[in-house]
Amino acid sequence: MTPLSILELVRVTEAVDARGALNNARGLAAHAERLGYNRVWVAEHHNMRGIASAATSVVLAHIAEGTKTIRIGAGGIMLPNHSPYVIAEQFGTLAQLFPGRIDLGLGRAPGTDQLTLRALRRTPEAADNFPQDILELQAFLAPAGPGQRIEAVPAAGTNVPLWILGSSHFGAMLAAELGLPYAFASHFAPDHLIEALAIYRSRFKPSEQLDKPYAMVGVNVIAAETDADAKRLATTQQMSFTGIFRGARGLSQPPIDDIETYWSPVEKAQVTRMLARSIVGSPDTVRAGMDALIAEAKADELIIVSDVYEHTLRLRSIELIAEAAGLASLRPAAIRAV
Description:
globular, oxidoreductase, oxidoreductase activity, acting on paired donors, with incorporation or reduction of molecular oxygen, Bact_Lucif_Oxidored, CmoO-like
């Protein structure tokens, strides 16, 4: 059975404030744990009113405290925004608090706009150091060597598993070169999925962390009792993506009956392309869609985004997805760290 995981957006909505979004994320993770999901990740986003996961390591601690066995991680930390030393300290601390459960996915994009990037005191050129920063971070997470004068306390020796995140060929080549697991963001950048995975697998070099390629595929999945119900729920995400093109990234909005009244033909074409691999429908539709994606991409794992406005319906969505995927009702003792 292909493992199934969740990318939690920690959505602030027109009805739920930031604190509510953080508590909802914690509740969703506990629900996912009971259903047999493998991991829950959150991503670093800045200056976005509708997403409350900017302080990613703090959010992960909150979620991990509400769960017992499911893996918790960053999907991801935008490493050019940070000192590798500080990220090692943060995630080493998480690993000490929640041993054997922490993942660290790393991205090269800023996760924000250029104006906010300046507020973070980082420059666009920082991304050029991404490969070297990963090696530096990896070294701080490894056991300290004899005479090592700079040690990331309490991170040294935790060996937190690193992942490379990507939406292009660059991430695939880097993950292959470093021998790290690779997560492709086809939930918003589907165009190069198959090509990127082929590059990753063909160029992969075994490492201490990983002896063979391991690819996780991001995909939007929204499930409801019927196809029509699911399509209506999906309008929340369609409106959020439309907001990207309008330069208006606001709060998450409740679903509407007719999305055609909301977007223009140009916006529809843009959003439809970004969401091209979305799987939306009843459990039967979701099962067929996920099976087809796993077969096409030869995915080792799927990480789903189920961006549903109402929390109870989002819980129901991930429940129906779990049923469609054939997950066990009780979580297995062994979980995949990779």
